[in-house]
Amino acid sequence: MSLLRVEGLRTVLSSAAGEVRAVDGVSFGLAAGETFALLGESGCGKSMTALSLMRLLPDAGWIAGGRVLLEGRDLLALSEAEMRNVRGREMAMIFQEPATSLNPVLTVGEQIGEALSRHTALRREEVRHRATELLEAVGIPAAAQRLGEYPFQFSGGMKQRVMIAMALAGNPRLLIADEPTTALDVTIQAQVLELLGAIQRERGMGMLLITHDLGIVARLAQRVGVMYAGELVEVAERATFFSAPQHPYSNKLFAALPRPERRGGLLETIPGSVPPLTTTFAGCRFAERCFSVMARCRSEPPAWHESGPGHVVRCHLYDQGATGRPQESEILIVPLEASSAVRFAQEDGSASLLEVADLKVHFPIRRGVLQRATGHVRAVDGVSLRLDPGRTLALVGESGCGKTTAGKAILQLIKPSAGSVCFDGEELTTLPAARLRRLRSEMQIIFQDPYASLDPRMRVGDTIEEGLLALGAAADRTAREGRIAELLERVGLAAGMRGRYPHEFSGGQRQRIAIARALAVAPRLLICDEPTSALDVSVQAQILNLLKELQTTLGLAYLFITHNIAVVEYLAHEVAVMYLGRIVERGAVGEVLGGPKHPYTEALLSAVPRLDTAGQRKVIMLQGDMPSPAKPPAGCHFHPRCPRAMPRCAETYPAETNLGTRSVRCLLYE
Amino acid sequence: MMPVLLWTDLLVFLLIACGIGAGAYVSRREYLLASWRRVGESRAGMASLTLLLAFVAVGLLDSLHYRPRLEAANGQPAGGYGSEVRSALDALLLPLKTRTEKTYSAPLATHLYAKETVELADGSQARVFPRLKHGGAHLEDAEAEWSRDVVLRILRGLALAVLAGPTFAALAVLAAARRWGMNWQAAWRRIRRGESRFAWDAVLLTLAALLLLVGPAISLAGGYHVFGTDKVGQDVLYLTLKSIRTGLVIGTITTLAMLPFAVALGIAAGYLGGWVDDLIQYLYTTLNSIPGVLLIAASVLMVQVLIDTHPAWFATAAQRADARLLALCLILGVTSWTGLCRLLRAETLKLRELEYVQAAQAFGASAARIMGRHVLPNVMHIVLIAVVMDFSGLVLAEAVLSYIGIGVDPSTISFGTMINTARLELAREPVVWWSLLAAFVFMFVLVLAANLFSDTVRDAFDPRVAGRRSASSAQEPAA
């Protein structure tokens, strides 16, 4: 008998725009010891499904129908008091954001103890003992001592481990993990995924994994359910799903992933976005965005079709007598023709556009009444880069390594403490303010969060116009109007949208507006600070395509700051890996990502979840977290976590070693 | 007559001119108009706005000042003007103003509230409640006819209201019908069923309720003192209506005096940081650590001494009282900007780290431009809320300050001075409750309407709130 059976679950949220059918007839089963992954883009109802199972819906939401059977007992029929016994004891949940899931004013021990005393009959001493065991089980060293510490004393990954320990306190048989690693760095994500897998195997729990990341699905799940617009569209075993996805949406999800094979071509995109769930759907919900759409798709909702053992799909393409078959998502390598100006610049190669030498940004730590600087956070500690016109340099690293600060320091948005930034032969750090202002049109920035990077009270046209006005690019009004319209069309929006406010746009559209704003002043260098990390895969593909196309047609140089290795492989020409304020390895993309030399690069690359499930590569597990940039370890910054550390590593910071076209900072290669 | 323009009048008219200018500016911009349309769609907002406008109308009438031409004894116009400054409201309420009694009388009373020794016809003396000079003077036998007369007058007032009501309603319906391009029956149906986007139904209902109160009040005021009289026999209804202007002036002009300080200093402190921030923080921390009432008392007394030592500056008593009112507004403004300044500084600290501000910096936009274009519009909702919240707070503060004797000039009629005199009346036996109650009810309605309206405006202008309302379905339902 399966551990969990969900039958026709329907969840409705009320909103001013009408009833949002967030979950609309979802059915699936989950056996003990099995991991079932719910996969989909944001707004598809994945999280609402999880909250409905726990009956933890927001006030505006209610369950409109269906059954949730946990070991044969219908959870929806239980009273709230009985439900409280189910939560934590029979099923537990881990949330996405570990930073806000723990109460900051209670010690970790108290919070785990709370869960324990609620669900077990242990006495005080036993509770403490048991809490220590749990912390040890989730791999927190010195557990007994850390029980008395507060959440702020834990790093993000450690907090997520504490959350897992709390979830395990009641010994649940079902664990719901709602995007458990989305807020974590790649190497930490690898640790947490490993831990979740191990715990599940040990305890034989069922796990419902909610994620948007195909890589995590490949790593952890046994079965996969793809959700789209409130309903499941495909359910399959992992192996069959990854080898032969059936639904056009699943197909497109794979095709939209940036991969090295696609270099030089455009990514496949899914046009449009997930329809609002207030819509009453007549036919297939994906019809509007589907490439294989047929007439009946728009009028008749598709039924389940069994296409193999345990593999079902909801699509008209598999109906009896249907002629169409899903287009194999052939990789369209559309070769992009570089314009002659760009080619010229690339071939010339002698004059680099941006040259950064030994850039340092130190933030003073002030203490005491007199606010004296007692130390420095060495956010960027000696970074040297070189970027040629029309090329893309990816700056890769985990959060807190200083890559964003480096980007802003290059633009002189943050005053560098030392070093030089040479843009097109002009030294920016010592340039007078007026000269610098004129140069600003040459270099622009795109930010990570498309929701924070547009002024909510300015219309889109005004936002774009701002750059034109500030730098006096277009003097008279009609010229500016024309330029705004041209820019909006350039990034794939309609010129008539200039009168709207940012909140009327989706995340991808906002990012396009941000790109248009940067392009307004015709820059030659664009610093892209994680421009796609807040976006869904299909939208990410649209933005990456746009960036690539702009580079080939306008000859822009990108400094691409990211933690997403797949994007680097697809887009970048060169790559620089940063760790704790310094660049540890740099070189051409193929070289560095194909054969990493620095142990950190190696570990970083191996930690990225991959789709190729066949040959499970060995993941190099890094111990612990990144140290604080206020107190970097002596010697090589990486040596406390390095699997190949030598005694000598603790003594001196390695100098740069040139290995042909690339350079590494590691004593192994000296 | 000779028009007189008091300083506060000037500021009030300036404010109205600004309001009209802003209205014209908004009406040419579709996107701002959309926000105001949302205000218009809110029933609570429109009902409170109707009430507020009624108050403002009274206040405006009371701001049109003049000095009447002196009349000589023989009926020939004399060469000069009286030293008394009157307002249009005074002219309207002349009967109320002039028909004073000897001392206290209860609402709608026919007799004084205090016994007096009177000489009877037979020469003996008796302690009785004497008849009022004006209140119920038209009645022969006060005891027997009073209740009938009052009921009749109320009915007459209601009839007046019922007659006047449809006139307003018809005007509104015709205006709406023209707007929608339909005949008036259809427009009326639409309004009655609450189907119109603009909350006409709320406006008309509020107007109806107002008329039903005002009609009987007018009718009763013809023969009685509706809210009674105060210690020196002045009609309390007249006093309450005169207080409205003082309240409105203090509530609006003070905020105007405060806003430039609070907004400029708050945003500058938050955005520029460094020594500017230190200086501004030092300034408002110092100001805040002086007890507010003490500071206000000291400033008011200084101003008062200044006014008293220069009697030649002012032609009339009204101008002197007005100077003191203006001084109080400015003093209250200068001492009360710290709260809003702090709020704005904190909000600006948050905003300046946002990426759209950094994007503007990347364009090389100047600090002044960023503060004006990006920071100010995004803190405007805080300013708007603060202004309206402060409005009610200041109306109340005036009452408190006048109560302890450092508020407006004693000759200025205000809610505060009314409450101040009520202090003694409450200690009296039997209690004189009507002047306190009248002041309280008017002040309460004014402040409540202002607060409700401010809520509506805030919700309509915050694009995040509006966005949530319209786009919540498009956004992901779960984080």
Structure description:
The complex is a heterodimer of chains A (670) and B (479). Chain A is α/β, with parallel strands linked by helices. Helices cover 31% and strands 23% of the residues of chain A. Chain A contains 21 helices and 24 strands. Chain A has an eight-stranded mixed sheet with strand order 6-7-8-3-9-10-12-11, sandwiched between helices. An eight-stranded mixed sheet of chain A has the order 18-19-20-15-21-22-24-23, with helices on both faces. About 3% of the residues of chain A have low confidence. Chain B is mainly alpha-helical and 479 residues long. Helix content of chain B is 70%, strand content 5%. Chain B has 18 helices and seven strands. In chain B, the strands form three sheets. Chain B has a three-stranded antiparallel sheet with strand order 1-2-5. Chain B has a two-stranded antiparallel ribbon with strand order 3-4. In chain B, β6 and β7 form a beta hairpin. In chain B, α9 runs parallel beside α13 and α11 runs antiparallel to α12. The longest helix of chain B has 39 residues. Chain B is globular. At the A-B interface, β2, α1, α14, β18 and α15 of A face α14, α15 and α18 of B.
Question: What's the structural blueprint in terms of helices and strands?
Answer:
The complex is a heterodimer of chains A (670) and B (479).
Chain A: E1 4-15, E2 18-30, E3 35-39, H1 46-54, E4 61-70, E5 73-74, H2 80-86, E6 91-94, H3 98-101, H4 108-119, H5 124-137, H6 143-146, H7 156-168, E7 174-178, H8 186-203, E8 206-211, H9 214-220, E9 223-228, E10 231-237, H10 238-243, H11 248-256, E11 304-308, E12 311-314, H12 340-348, E13 354-367, E14 372-387, E15 392-396, H13 403-410, E16 418-423, E17 426-427, H14 433-439, E18 443-446, H15 460-470, H16 477-490, H17 507-519, E19 525-529, H18 537-554, E20 557-562, H19 565-571, E21 574-579, E22 582-588, H20 589-594, H21 599-607, E23 657-659, E24 662-664
Parallel strand pairs in A: 3-8, 3-9, 6-7, 7-8, 15-20, 15-21, 18-19, 19-20
Antiparallel strand pairs in A: 1-2, 1-4, 4-5, 9-10, 10-12, 11-12, 13-14, 13-16, 16-17, 21-22, 22-24, 23-24
Helix pairs in contact in A: 4-5, 4-7, 5-7, 7-8, 15-16, 15-17, 16-17, 17-18
Chain B: E1 2-4, H1 7-27, H2 30-41, H3 43-61, E2 65-67, E3 69-71, E4 77-81, E5 86-87, H4 88-92, H5 94-98, E6 116-119, E7 125-128, H6 142-180, H7 184-192, H8 200-221, H9 236-272, H10 274-289, H11 292-309, H12 317-335, H13 337-352, H14 355-362, H15 367-403, H16 415-427, H17 434-461, H18 463-471
Antiparallel strand pairs in B: 1-2, 2-5, 3-4, 6-7
Helix pairs in contact in B: 2-17, 3-8, 3-9, 3-17, 6-7, 6-8, 9-10, 9-12, 9-13, 9-15, 9-17, 11-12, 13-15, 14-15, 15-16, 15-17, 16-17
